Amino acid sequence: MYKILRRGSSRVFFACVVLLTLLLCLYYVNQAQAPSTGPSAGILNEELRYDRGLTSITPDYVESPDAKVSLDTCPVIVPRNVNIDTQQEFRKFDFQPSWMRSREYWDDSFETRYVVLRKDPTRPPLKVILVPHSHTDPGWLKTFEQYFHSSTRSILNNMVSKLQQWPNMTFIWSEVSFLSLWWESAHPTKKMVVKRLVKDGRLEMTTGGWVMTDEATSHIYAMLDQLIEGHQWLKTNLDVIPESGWSVDPFGHGGTIPYFLKASGASGTVIQRIHYAWKQWFAKEQYGDFVWIQPWDQTGKADMLTHNQPFDIYNIKHSCGPHPHVCLNFDFRKIRGEYTEYSVRAVEITPNNVKQMAELLLEQYSRTGSLFTHNVVLMPLGDDFRYDHAIEWDQQYTNYKILMDYINSRKEEYNAEIVFGTPKDYFREIRKRIEEFPTLKGDFFVYSDIFSEGRPAYWSGYFTTRPYMKILDRELEANLRSAEILYTIALNVAKQSGKDFMLYETYFEKLVKARRNLGLFQHHDAITGTSKSFVMKDYALKLFESISDTTSLQSFAIQSLAGSASKPNSVYVLAESDRDSYEKLPKKIPIGINGQETKKIVLFNPLAQPRQEVISLKVTSYKIRVLDTQKNPIPYQIAPVMNATSITHDVYVLLFVVELKPLSIATYHLQQVDKVPMEAISTVYCSRCGKDNVFPIKPMQVGDVQLENQRMKLLFDGQTGFLKRVTKKATGKIMQCAIQFAAYPSAQFHSGAYLFMPDPNLRDIDKDVLEAYTPHQKIYIVSGSLSSRLTVEYGKLLSHHVAIYHRDDGLGEAIYLRNIVDFETPPKNRETEMFMRLQTDILNGDPPEFYTDLNGHQMIKRTKIERIGIEGNYFPITTMAYIEDTNHRLTLLVNHCQGAASYQPGWLEVMLDRRTLYDDSRGMGEGLLDNRRTVIKHWLLLEDITGEKDKYSKPSLFANHLSNALNYPVNIFVVDGTEGDIAMAPEVRLLSQSFPCDLHLLNLRTNHDQKLPHFPVNSALMVLHRQGYSCSVGVDVAMKHCPLTEKIGQGTSFFKLANLNVTKTSLTGTKTKQRLKDGLQGMSLQPMEVETFNVNFVQ
Q1: Mean of the pLDDT values across residues 444-472?
Q2: For position 196, what pLDDT does the model report?
Q3: Which residue intervals define the domain Glycoside hydrolase family 38 central in the entry (predicted)?
Q4: Which residues fall within 8 angstroms of residue 398, CB to CB, at 6 or more apart?
């Protein structure tokens, strides 16, 4: 073109001008006719409109019709057949075998088989892979930073020097949190050595998460986010993608981590802590290596080769073979001033004792090898915080080197080989020897080891331990997720509009810190509540700091997307709740409205589907009204702030229902009025309250109490204040649904942070924790046009609220439960494990069956096993549990991890809080005494089952929606300033149409610059979860305005960011798979799948 123009061709020049004019005309015609429905939306025009009037904020929203589940379109999952179904197999076990007292399952039958196999000429030679490792907890008996300074830094420094000194030694590392902290101050030459060791395969990064996550109490968002954070760090700094998992200390194992690891590029994983009966069974069947499958995965792409370590724990004593007293001789650590069982026992290997010691060790290795058909042994060489002294590297290496050389040089005699290696070497070796491994589905909860007196010790206490901290964790998760989504869109809108984005870079550091603080808390001694009290406080301070940071980041992003102020850099979008410290519950800040002023309330819906929500605010006057985004008055309800005897008049509760579009920022308004309509004022039913000037007071009726809405009637016991039964109006069906609160008395020294065991002397007696407050409990009802709520107070211990909403739609179908539990200061409520139990007439089998979620990813069936007591029948739930028969299902949704059980037909119970004065001898060294006043929220759903039940059980679509709403509440802000100073857009829709009803936007997290990790770039990882739903449960509930389609709708785009490049990646975003030419519409997920896409916002 340049050459043509230079020659002065006026004809060509004229043609170019005409063509350009035509294109511009077409562009403006297109803008006038079709304002931003598709990916080619006019970004420039929107920017101009936005700056002028803050009114029409496109992309134009395309509203989907309501959706109902239909059998014709519902995706059906047929579970795959497997060799081992953990549920079926587990119930057949002997839980009191003869070897319980010795705690070693190796008996004559194992010995006989070992002797026979040794003589078998067809058996492959023994190969032992020694894996030096150090298990470094990022917090437990010390804080994360204390462990780093006292041990971990030395371990990593020693690793760099000693792996250079001993050229065939290997090592593995799992916790990227520690590695990242060390890396910050490490000398560049040390960094180069680490990179070389990784490249050479002598240092393997196993799992590669920020921490070695707990697998029972962690929720899918945080569990995956810490894995992404770790993998991204490893890719950026070491250019490595982990190929093996190493999960040796979590207390029981589920299928989520193997699934995540496989989807991230790993091909094998190691597990350790499973029930002693499983250990024996795998050893007996020679099934120690198996393929862990996902029951919903039809293709096999999620299948993960898994190795179960055959003995108790990952230290040398319990790893070399079946006889710990022999293995103690082969832990060669000897540090001056340190006296341990191994330092006393182990002796240095010399030419004089090498034959005897080599043969002794080889016998243990061979016995371990006899538990596998392939005769390959993975032998971990380490323990907690090992190799922190340089001399230990020398002691372990030189002694093992002498033993290895002796054995390897006599292959004819011993038919064995011992080498240093890593898990990757182990999986490579066994794949050479075996073509097909047994398949397994299910999980390994509940984990049990054995008490010193030979009784089972079930690790089901930590599912509930320190509920306050588990809730704090989920509060950060919800705030971080909202901040991630808002930040990603605000940053890229700012970049494309040429705004200064320096502030965004400052906020990005806080965002990264929040990811890492949340990630750190997923550690298996953090979210579990099983660290010392002062360590839990350190975690809490980190969570609290990041909750504050992510909330202020949301404010900043909302201001930049929806607001404009006369004063630049002022902060005027403020959170409506405040928290004085991590120890205090959040408080709603009372909103004051003066005279003619209109107070703006900004709401952000962080879900990619529309939602209907009841918003609750505190206001200083009841003389107000509520206006929607278009300033039209909407129904509202004024309720009192009260207890059972008095009503406060300096603050009121304001309730109103909002319908929010997906990922939308909506501005509602509060105005002062002279007269409030009568229907907006709540009626209070209370026997001990005097007259009131604002609220009509009526006495409580004698006998049972009823609450009702358009969909159901609830009957409560007039004495206790607890729910008795529910009547569904559509069918007239009466369902028994009695709520009960009680506790298990703890067995001293046997129930603690980790373990749950009721006192065996009082095993069949529930402790009536409410007895001390009976008959002085106080019951009152607040009823109005939007909601009716019954409250019963039992002293400080329990405040129990049940609310229903007066709606003829989804909100009217569910019962909201809120329990405030306060154990007060010890020794009050000592040895108390308090639960809420629902007693229904649902016929869920005998023995009863119920379903629990696994990390919020999928559901799994549990069947009661009488022989192992209540402690062995308690399971972790992070989002929900349900019981059902052929016609009905009762689902309980939770907002944090709790232990749950169905111990009698028709029962479903959840543990609320636990206090045990004594340690349970699992290493923490303390009882549980730091209980705090805790608010526990639940939704209760009673759903009908129509037609044939699903072969693979899943929640209803409505249950999934309600669960997402409970986990990711609407973010509420108040605008501080006058109309003249601040303009807020009525509604900013960050998404032009709803994602499919079952496609959950798990995250949209901005990527960092590869060379400058503290700087954001204009791409983000979009993580999606296709939440499988039932084809037969709750199908009568219509989902508002979200499509039940397989793919994201045509023309779906983000606010002002229509030009996207979308690439499918591995789950943690470290491997690119393929570019999607159809962008968001090209994303395709099967039910239950979690997938990640890199979204590049083209400048």
Answers
A1: 97
A2: 98
A3: 457-543
A4: none
For the annotated catalytic residues, the residue numbers are 249
Fill in the amino acid letter for 52.
Answer: R
* pLDDT of res. 100: 93
Count the neighbouring beta carbons within 10 Å of the beta carbon of residue 893: 27
Express each pLDDT in 840-868 by its tens digit: 999 999 999 999 999 999 999 999 999 99
Q: First CA to last CA across the chain, in angstroms?
A: 25
Q: Which amino acid is at 919?
A: D
Q: What whole-number distance in Å separates Cα of residue 966 and Cα of residue 1019?
A: 29
Q: Characterize the bridge pairing of strands 664-672 and 598-604.
A: antiparallel
Strand boundaries in 687-777, DSSP class E: 697-698, 705-708, 712-716, 723-728, 734-745
C-alpha 657/C-alpha 645 separation (Å) is: 29
- For residues 612-626, b (16+ Cβ closer than 10 Å) or e, as one string? bbbbebbbebbebbb
Residue with tokens 């019954």: 790
Residue 95 structure tokens: 């839980």
Beta-carbon contacts of residue 673 (< 8 Å; ≥ 6 apart): 623, 624, 625
DSSP-based three-state secondary structure for 685: strand
Q: How far apart are CA 584 and CA 581, in angstroms?
A: 5
Do 873 and 863 contact (CB within 8 A), yes or no?
no
Give the Cα separation of 809 and 688 in Å (integer): 35
**Joined tokens for residue 613:** 């929500």
pLDDT attached to residue 1013: 87
DSSP notation for 543-571: HHHHHHHHHHHHHHHHHHHHEEESSTT--
Write the single-letter amino acid at 134.
S
CA angle 771, 773, 776 (to 5 degrees): 125
Give percent of the chain above pLDDT 70.
94
Beta strands 304-308 and 268-271: pairing type?
Answer: parallel
For residue 121, cis peptide bond before it (omega within 30 degrees of 0): no
Phi-psi region of 1041 (alpha: psi -120 to 50; beta: other; left: phi over 0): left
Cβ atoms of 844 and 898 closer than 8 Å:
no
How many beta carbons lie within 10 A of that of residue 842, not counting itself? 26
- State how far the Cα of 57 lies from the Cα of 71, in Å rounded to an integer: 38
Report all structural domains of the chain as residue ranges with CATH numbers, in order of start: 114-444 (3.20.110.10), 463-573 (1.20.1270.50), 590-676+970-989 (2.60.40.1180), 700-967 (2.70.98.30), 993-1098 (2.60.40.1360)
Helices (H), 318-422: 324-327, 341-345, 354-369, 390-408, 411-414
Mean per-residue pLDDT, 892-897:
98
- Chain-centre distance for alpha carbon 1096: 26
Query: What is the distance between the alpha carbons of residues 559 and 507, in angstroms, rounded to a whole number?
Result: 14
* 848 Cα distance to chain centroid: 27
- The pLDDT value given to residue 643: 80
pTM for the full predicted model: 0.94
- Mean pLDDT across 1000-1011: 96
C-alpha 568/C-alpha 574 separation (Å) is 16
- Which one-letter amino acid corresponds to residue 1029? Y
Nearest Cα residue to 856 out of 254, 17, 324, 366: 254
**Amino acid type, 855:** N
Instruction: Count Cβ neighbours within 10 Å for each residue of 83-111 and write b for 16 or more, e otherwise.
Output: bbebeebbeebebeeeebeeebbbeeebe
Q: Can you tell me the distance from the alpha carbon of 878 to that of 869, in angstroms, rounded to the nearest whole number? A: 22
